[in-house]
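re the bet — no i am not wrong, look at it urself. input seq straight from the record:
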Amino acid sequence: MLVMNLEPTVVCSLPYGVGRRLIPGGPEDAVVDISKFPRLPRDIVQNTIIGSVISINTEEKVATIKTQASEYMHVSYDNVILATGAVPWIPPIEGVLMSCDHRIDNEGFSGEVVCVGNQFVPKASLAKGIYVMRTANDARALDKFAQEAQSAIIIGSGAIGLEVAEALADRGLTVTIVEALPHLTPALDKDMAKLLEKRIEERGIKVITEKQATSYHNGSLTLNDGTTLEASGVVFATGVRPDTRLAAKIGIKVEKGIVVNKYMQTNIPNIYAIGDATQIENTVSRKTYLPLIGTLAMRQALIAALNIAGKPTEHPPATSWGVSTIFDLHWGSVGLTEELAASLGMKATAIVMPVRTREPAMPEGKSGQWKIIFSTELTDSIKKGQILGFQIILDGESPLSTVERFLDMIVRHETIPELIGHFHIHSPSHNPPDDLYMGIMFRYGIN
């Protein structure tokens, strides 16, 4: 039985529905019709309850469900898979909430919520002009906003923030991005992020870094240096927080997220957890982290299902990754940035090298830049020369296959000298003859 309280949708595609350039049909085309999804049973709709699980009696193995019609159902179970996901997070800025009682009662697991500071509140309690991007309804609201507005401020510059900025610019709005960090896109180091920033500013978007919003009132956003920005609306793309409320309520162990073992089992028998609400081991740092990656959530769902079916399957340690594009400048990042490695106390450095997608004689070739972060010391858990992270900026062509290749290298703890085992296939119409992996080795130095 499937219990859901939100429309299933491809979250990462929602900004493109608002922008209309890649998804001309708008946000509705990013909503998934589960009755037609090829991997799901044909009778899935008949076995789906629209509502929310508000409590679970783990002794009697009974879940209480509040339906969309506010009726209560009690359902016995053999196993439960929690996939409660994450909700948009907004810093506790004065004025982002309407002046009303916005508390959620003990049964407040239904409906759409956001996390403001450390408090979960109904999304409907956000002040007029405040938007987020997580659900189909968020995309619909932003789509309507784009029809009527003249300007927007985007707070946060991760993939979603940049994609929303591009979408609203494509719709003709004047857009400003505000980022609290010293540069855009935390998944990139400053030197790589500057390439994105240059393209964004060339397309007319104003970029403000190292500034934080302190208050909002009727279209006016005040920053911590006293600057006031005026806009038709403000979109908070400041990250998400795992929704662990139900898990905590029934006694499941929660740290950064829901704690699971390598089989996706929680500390309570017959209850599994997957997706954005769960924490797993990072293969590079060896610490637990929240991946917040949709394709990894699908992998976790398969692992949980296999274990329930009596086919033991382990979830391997993973690492973060992301690939996106803005104004046809593609970027990708996997593993640790040089900045993050330093903050974790790891001794690392990087090789930065220009790349081109065709040989110089071919004018259709595109230019870009690679950055490979690697360890400079041997520790109990890290090899000297081990590849810790990879970043790429590429103009006009997808970097996906390259990022995936480095993802495999990183999760397998490969070193730069071990690149000798990665072969380079040359096809003049597809890539240059230079073996870039060997180029990395030469820059690293062969001892």
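see?? The CA atoms of residues 166 and 326 lie 6 Å apart. told u. also DSSP finds nine helices and 26 strands in the chain. so pay up
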